[in-house]
Specification:
This protein is an alpha/beta fold and about 290 residues long. It has helices at about 35-40, 60-70, 90-105, 125-135, 150-160, 180-190, 200-210, 260-270, and strands at about 20-25, 45-50, 75-80, 110-115, 140-145, 170-175, 190-195, 215-220, 230-235, 250-255. It folds into two domains: about 10-150, 3-Layer(aba) Sandwich (Cobalt-precorrin-4 Transmethylase, domain 1), CATH 3.40.1010.10; about 150-270, Methyltransferase, Cobalt-precorrin-4 Transmethylase, Domain 2 (2-Layer Sandwich), CATH 3.30.950. Strand 6 (about 170-175), helix 6 (about 180-190) and strand 7 form a beta-alpha-beta unit.
Length: about 290
């Protein structure tokens, strides 16, 4: 990738100090953008977030096959940043500040630095907190965010699922412990994406059944973006919560509007000369 002057994008900045935040996508390195790859091929320091000492960074694992030779030849240095999975706001604030300081010190030495994020940096990303610290305390460091493919759009493309259309509304729910809030969201939205909260699976399905028709689409994914990814699609009425794994990566529920169902039933009834129509999700295309 080159700019209008023929320079690589990663070298085209007029700023003395530069940090790139790279969205690494859902897991497949082939889904990385060309710009992200260009930055990875030019930067000399990479920061990779992880939840604890000694644990591999998911984001680094995505891009590693593309830069392994650079790492082995020491053209690029990889540094881990720990973001512990805790709820103590005071401790988290200290972590964000400390990690931002570490990144800033490397940037201020004139290095071309990249920070890695799984998915897209604008969605539930650790970089949100890093950026706040950098922008307020290190304004001399220019930050550029390189977007990545979000897990739910990657999932939808593989499931051949149209998430929203026309005037439909979609919501993303990162946690389901506030069930009353979940109830309000389900009652007012057409598509809801639930992320990684299988503990409340039974409660969520119960709430969905209260506010959505039996023929609503339900798509359940496990290990999104990995080689072992599993996607199951069905109708709400056909879900047996006792037989569905609670350890899902993503649950997507989509309200199917009555007029569309009637159109599908009418079409099928004409073809089959029968008013009794059972929609097969595998064949039903929107």
């Amino acid at each position: 990738m080159y700019d209008k002057d023929g320079k690589g994008i990663a070298n085209a900045s007029s700023s003395r100090y530069k940090l790139y935040c790279i969205g690494c996508g859902p897991g497949d390195p082939m889904l990385l953008t060309l710009k992200a790859l260009d930055v990875l091929n030019h930067c000399n320091v990479i920061f990779a977030p992880t939840s604890r000492e000694g644990r591999e960074s998911m984001a680094l694992n995505i891009v590693k096959p593309l830069i392994e030779s650079r790492i082995k030849s020491r053209e690029v240095e990889v540094k881990s940043l720990i973001f512990p999975m805790v709820k103590d706001k005071g401790r988290l604030a200290d972590v964000w500040r400390g990690n931002a300081d570490e990144i800033a010190m490397v940037c201020l030495k004139g290095n071309l630095v990249a920070y890695l994020c799984v998915g897209d940096p604008s969605l539930y990303s650790t970089f949100t907190y890093i950026y706040r610290e950098l922008s307020s305390r290190y304004p001399e460091i220019e930050v550029e965010i390189v977007p990545g493919i979000a897990s739910f759009t990657s999932f939808a493309s593989q499931a051949k699922m149209n998430l929203v259309e026309g005037e439909q509304i979609m919501a993303i729910v990162p946690a389901c412990y506030d069930l009353e809030r979940v109830r309000r969201i389900v009652s007012s939205c057409d598509t809801i994406v639930f992320l990684k909260d299988g503990r409340y699976f039974d409660d969520v399905i119960r709430i969905v059944r209260e506010h959505m028709p039996d023929y609503a689409y339900v798509a359940i994914a496990q290990d999104v973006g990995s080689e072992g990814q599993v996607i199951n699609m069905t109708r709400l009425k056909d879900i047996d919560t006792s037989k569905v794994s609670k350890y899902f990566s993503m649950l997507v529920v989509k309200r199917e509007h009555q007029h569309k169902l009637q159109q599908q039933q009418h079409s099928n009834s004409n073809n089959n000369n029968s008013s009794d129509c059972r929609i097969d999700v595998a064949r039903d295309k929107e």
